[in-house]
Amino acid sequence: MNVVEMDNLKKKLDEIDIKLLDTLNERAKLVKEMIHHKKLQGLPAFDPVREREMLNHIAKNNQGPFAAETLQHIFKEIYKAGLELGENDNRKALLVSRRKKAEDTIVQVNKDSIGDGKQRLIAGPCSVESYEQTAKVAERLKEHGLTLLRGGAFKPRTSPYDFQGLGLDGLKILKRIADEYQLSVISEIVSPNDIETAEAYVDVIQIGARNMQNFELLKEAGQSRKPILLKRGLAATIEEFMNAAEYIISSGNENIILCERGIRTYERATRNTLDITAVPILKQETHLPVFVDVTHSTGRRDLLQPAAKAAMAVGADGLMAEVHPDPAVALSDQAQQMDLEQFDHFVSILKNFGLHTNKNE
Ligand SMILES: O=C(O)C(=O)C[C@]1(C(=O)O)C=C[C@@H](O)C=C1
After folding, report:
1. Hey, what CATH class is 107-360 in?
2. Nearest of 303, 320, 329, 325 to residue 355 by alpha carbon
3. Chorismate mutase domain: which residues (predicted)?
């Protein structure tokens, strides 16, 4: 075969490819329509009996040179791709998705516009243990020009014998400190019954990793007037995380901050594995601000700074980190909280990296 003949053959193949392409897309449109109607009627999209009949039909009509099994394999992939088209459409249509709302959601927390492009830090002790302990941290935040204080009052602990938090008294301490130091406070709520009470004391309600799929809590948070910081579950996929946020938004509350906090993997060098690419994925797929909790994702003080830099580099809207005046005597998370000096160092390094504070406004 000479070069010209070869070129002609290539041209024919190109033409056939375009025909196949058009046919596949034409087919996909019909499948989408079919799946849409199946869903409206409450029927499952996947129909194995019908697929078996269709594959038999392909084999019966095959005149070669392809073997029937080869063609059946190709057609099975086509059916599968059609089903995935239906699934993707479903996900893209979520209220938290960019498809529904292209522009970034900005969550207003007093004077802070979370998600406005400035990278902020939420810091504070793991647990509120006393007024004095939390006030010491608040004072340091204030000195640095930081405005967002975290502190746990209701503590979901792995062991029922570990410190469970001060509960309502803890929230009262946070409120007092917020007023005295003009800070916004963030605290975790674990029961739907406490959401309304919490509104009087905190500026942002946190839903923790262990409760990411506590659907009753998510629905109640959706009815709250307060912004919600939703942490990713320890073994949750990004899709499950987005669906958890969807529970909140579909119940009426659009003020959601997503927080990646590491996922459980086989790796034991860190407490959890920081899924750093979750940040740009969530930024692309949703319109919500995304934070990274560097304390829980690493569980190691020596890794807080590199993890924070990585989070800022991939476009996180902010960070969360734990700091305690005397971590050695802390009632929770002794190994991972920074002391005040370490915190000073952490903040000054990150300020050079672009961290926003009132002092560099
Ligand atoms: O024929 C149907 O019932 C369809 O929904 C279409 C279709 C297909 O791609 O052909 C899609 C999914 C089903 O599992 C079987 C067939």
Report:
1. alpha beta
2. 320
3. 1-90
Report yes or no for ipTM above 0.95. no
By CB neighbour count within 10 A (0-12 exposed, 13-18 middle, 19+ buried), where does 106 fall?
middle
CB under 8 Å to 40, separation ≥6 — which residues?
none
- CA-nearest residue, atom 8 of ligand 1: 79
Are the C-beta atoms of residues 190 and 168 closer than 8 Å to each other?
A: no
Residue nearest atom 16 of ligand 1, based on CA coordinates: 51
Other C-beta atoms within 10 Å of 36: how many? 13
Closest by CA position to 294, among listed 56, 104, 119: 119
Q: How far apart are CA 120 and CA 91, in angstroms?
A: 29
3-class DSSP state of 162: coil
Q: Locate the domains of the chain by residue range.
A: 3-92, 107-360
The 3-state DSSP class for residue 235 equals coil
The answer to whether 259 and 291 have CB atoms below 8 angstroms apart is: yes
Q: Tens digits of per-residue pLDDT, 251-275?
A: 999 999 999 999 999 999 999 999 9
Cα–Cα dist 252/112, whole Å: 22
Q: Is 233 in the pocket of ligand 1 (CB under 6 A)?
A: no
Index of the ligand 1 atom closest to the CA of residue 47 = 14
The yes or no reply on domain 3-92 and CATH 1.20.59.10 is: yes
pLDDT in tens, 15-65: 999 999 999 999 999 999 999 999 899 999 999 999 999 999 999 999 999
Q: What is the pTM of this model?
A: 0.76
CA pair distance 3, 133, nearest whole angstrom: 83
Backbone angles phi, psi at 258, to 5 degrees: -85, 145
